[in-house]
Amino acid sequence: MSEPRVEPFAGAAGELRGLLGRAFCDNPGMVATLGDERPRRLARATRLMGGLSGMALASGTVEVVRAGGRVAATSLSYGPDQKPRGRALLPMYLAGLSTGPRALVRLLRLDEFLRTHHPRAPHFFLAVLGVEPEMQGRQLGSALLRALSARADAAGLPCYLETDREAAKRLYMRHGYEVVGEHDLTNLGGVRFWRMERPPRR
To answer: What does residue 20 show for φ and ψ, rounded to 5 degrees?
Structure first.
C-alpha cells in the first residue's frame, strides 16, 4: 500500500467541520461537555470543530489527506511561532457560544484545564487529528502524524498533544509519544485525559 499523500489544506473551515464533527462526536470529552443526546451533540461538535478549524486556518497549520476526491483526514497543529491571537480567536469564541450555556460552562472548564497544563517551552502542538469514521484503519492519521513529526524533528523540538481516547493514546505511542500526565477530570464526570509528548529525533 502506498503512503497516503499529505498536503496543505486550501479552503474554508466549513469543508473540515463535518468530518471533524463526525470523528469526535462520540469521544468521552465531547459526550461530557456537549451532552448525551447524539443528534444534538453531533450538531454542537460540528460547530465547535468549525471554530477550531477556522482558528487553525487563521494562525496554524492545516494538513489533509484526500480519498475519493474529498478530505478524509486532517490535522490542525501549531508550531512554536504560531499562536492564535486577536481576530484569529473569533471563530472559536463564536463556536463555543453556539453550544448553549450548559455546554459552554463545561467547555470553559475543559479549556482551563488544558491551558493550565500546556507546556511553556517551545514545541509543536497537535491540537486536532481527525479521520472520517469509515476511513479509519487506512493509515491516514499515521501519515499526518509522520508529517508533523518530520517538521518537529527538523526544528529539534518536541511535539505535544492531549487525548481522551485509549485507542488514540496507543496510536500516538506507536509514533513515539510518551504519556507525561494522566488526569481524571472530576468536574466533567471523571473523563480521563492523557497529555503526551514526543521527543525530537535526529
So the answer is: -70, -35
